[in-house]
Amino acid sequence: MINSGAGWGAGAGWGAGLAAGAWGVINSGAGWEQLRCGLGGWEIPAGRRSDMGTIGGGNRLLDDAASFAAFDRRSATWRRTANGPFVGCAVRAKVWTMSLRRNPRQAPRGPVVLVVMDGVGRGAGDEADAVTIAATPTLDGLWVPGARAELRAHGRSVGLPSDDDMGNSEVGHNALGAGKIYAQGAVLVGRALETGAIFEGATWRSVIARGVRGGAVHFLGLLSDGNVHSHLTHLFALMERAARDGCKRLYVHALLDGRDVPPTSALEYVDRTERFLATLRTSGIDARIVSGGGRMRLTMDRYEADWTMVERGWHTHVLAEARPFASATEAILTYRAEHPGIIDQDLPPFIVTPAAPIVDGDAVVMFNFRGDRAIEISRAFEDDVFDRFDRVRRPAVFYAGMMEYDGDLHIPKHYLVTPPAIDRPMGELLAESYVTQLAISETQKYGHVTYFWNGNRSGMFDAGTETYIEIPSDNVPFDQRPWMKAAEITDRLTAELRTGRYQFARVNYANGDMVGHTGKFDATVLAVEVVDLELARLAKVVDELQGILVVTADHGNADEMFQHDKTGRVQRDKVTGQPVVKTSHTLNPVPFLIHDPSRGDRYEIDPERAKTAGIANVTATCLELLGFVPPDDLEPSLLRFR
Question: In this structure, which long-range contacts are made by residues 386-391, counting pairs with CB atoms below 8 Å and at least 24 apart in sequence?
């Protein structure tokens, strides 16, 4: 018998050998990593697993590539096989501490399915609240005492600088996937600027070297103080320091927001930027806005949904091929006159004369700190082999991002601030314990249930136990297709669940957020109703499988479609009397509910804990529902067992 209780022997922990033909009981309270039959010359290759059994009722699958021994699930023993008897071999087991321990109070019969209703918060219930106005019989029926709560999804609860900062999909899925609160991009950039550390690294020195030698330094990013993708103060700080360090040509390529800030506020940010640039010009510096356009028309595509956006951005920023204007202000006013009702995010591209294309010897700084909408333009600048569109020419520039936007693919190669190090997210914990997982959404949110959920990592932790499914999104304005791909997601999700392969599944329905951002109220109401309909379909299948359905959101959006004044009243246009449209996220809490027909009175959501909880608490809660004891370093589970 090989049995050490807390591990395998001393130090590195190698166990004892087995006599010829002997049966060996393998039992380690701390878990195990691999078995090797050394003396007989057999070695089990890494990455090969047998489906014949597990240690400890489900801790980790055993390898059996050579078919010389089999593991008996019922007796927890190795036994001889015809192809290779267990003769004269030393069985060695390396110590490996299991990530997750079983929870004796909870043993789910079917899958645990977590639904993220993107952008569906808990609003004021007034005329601005599309979620309340929508017909949601499924959500209403699932919203039962003891299994519901409202969770914080903004500000410090998701790692943002203050509670005045609205949440977003990136930090929301980081929190949901990590189960911990990490300082996010805005906080890290702010600290780096405050301490000056951002200017001490090799990346900044390389940027300045190009400028000092006579090249232009181009600053590309979202002209906004929404603090979701960027902040105007970060841009000003970088440009001010570049001027002080000796750069004489500083150009801004201004992507207009209207999404994380009021929908027609672009002139406010352009005016602030122009005033700042004017102070730089008093020192003899050529500091100008030289190109721009709406963030949903050019440059800021994500998840490879529409590379033509990036192509338009390339032609505008790099080649200076767009409609020319004397100023950014003139461009905005002209486009608004030509396209009545257009909002900032949809404004066409423009350049400001005299043109300032990006050429050899220049430096380019992408000053967005959030990664999803900065990756594709970064690839256009950096990839040697590139087939997404014809770049016409690729200037030899030094390109840097505010942060590393993809830590696995190392995009971009150079960056100013190190992104948050998110350690051991839920996906990794489950993969290490061989819990089968499914992640599914349509293109617009696919990266959120994979990349952001996994702590800003590309790819899977274990391809043997994980399945990722992307349903291609429609390439049309979302208010024209408010149903998006919700039905197709549910079709595929329920089909996969019925295979019985998955213990945990996570799904994002993008409708509430993507349609909410259009500012179109009626379409957003319909979008919420579509999600409710799909929840009904999904709940039926989860019930069939004796599973547990968990529903929450990553932040609010559809719950507040009009601006409110300081008293909480809906703001109205002074001329038309119509409500002032809001297209940004909200500071409202988000719903959290558990639908578990087998729950009875075994557990409930702890009302006291829920009062101060945020969406980071969802991770430990789901782990407990899966039958595990959550690690101590996670935000605590919301469950209270009786």
Answer: 388/304, 388/307, 388/310, 388/311, 389/307, 389/308, 389/310, 389/311, 389/314, 391/314, 391/318
Check if the beta carbon of residue 171 is closer than 8 Å to that of residue 158.
yes
In the DSSP assignment, the letter for residue 283 is: T
92-117: b (≥16 Cβ within 10 Å) or e: bbebbebbbbbbeebebebbbbbbbb
Q: For 144-161, what is each residue's pLDDT tens digit? A: 999 999 999 999 999 988
Q: Chain centroid to CA 430: how far?
A: 18
Residue 614 CA to residue 638 CA, distance in Å, equals: 10
In percent, the amount of the chain with pLDDT more than 90 equals 76
Domain membership of residue 107 (yes or no) is: no
Integer distance in angstroms from the first to the last C-alpha of the chain? 39
Task: Give me 392's structure tokens.
Answer: 């016409």
How far is it, in rounded angstroms, from Cα 37 to Cα 149?
Answer: 52
Asked whether residue 251 is assigned to any structural domain, the reply reads: yes
Contact (Cβ atoms closer than 8 angstroms) between residue 515 and residue 445: no
Residue 27 located in a structural domain: no
Q: What is the CATH number of the domain that holds 237?
A: 3.40.1450.10
Q: Answer whether residue 210 shows pLDDT above 60.
A: yes
486-497 and 521-544 helices cross at what angle (nearest 10)?
10
SS (HEC) of 420-438: CCCCCCHHHHHHHCCCCEE
Tokens of 317: 């920023």
Looking up tokens 């256009």, which residue turns up? 380
CA nearest neighbour of 94 among 71, 134, 138, 60: 60
Helix (H) or strand (E) holding 595: strand 590-595
Q: Give how far Cα 499 sits from Cα of 464, 492, 502, 526, Å.
A: 16, 11, 8, 31
Q: Is residue 41 part of a domain?
A: no
User: Which tokens go with 271?
Assistant: 């005016």
Between CA 152 and CA 612 the distance in angstroms is 8
Contact call for residues 170 and 370 (beta carbons, < 8 A): yes
Active site residue 441: no
- How many separate domains does the chain show? 2
- Measuring CA to CA, how many Å separate 397 from each of 273, 300, 414? 25, 20, 12
The residue written with tokens 């009626």 in the block is: 522
- Strand segments, DSSP code E, in 146-230 are 148-151, 217-223
The domain boundary, picked from 417, 448, 474, lies at 417
Q: Per-residue pLDDT tens for 31-83?
A: 332 333 332 322 333 333 333 233 333 323 333 333 223 333 223 333 333 33
| Whether residue 390 is found in the same domain as residue 443 | no
pLDDT at 419: 78
Q: What is the pTM of this model?
A: 0.73
Enter the tokens of residue 194. Answer: 């405050």
Q: In the prediction, which pLDDT does 92 show?
A: 33
Domain extent at residue 284:
186-417
Q: What is the mean pLDDT of residues 278-306?
A: 96
Q: 3-state SS of the chain: helix, strand, coil percent to 5? A: 30, 20, 50
Q: Is residue 229 within 8 Å of residue 260, measured between CB atoms?
A: yes
Catalytic residue among 28, 157, 169, 584: 169
Distance CA 427, CA 434 (A): 10
Q: Report the pLDDT value the prediction gives residue 160, as an integer from 0 to 100.
A: 87
| AA identity, residue 385 | V
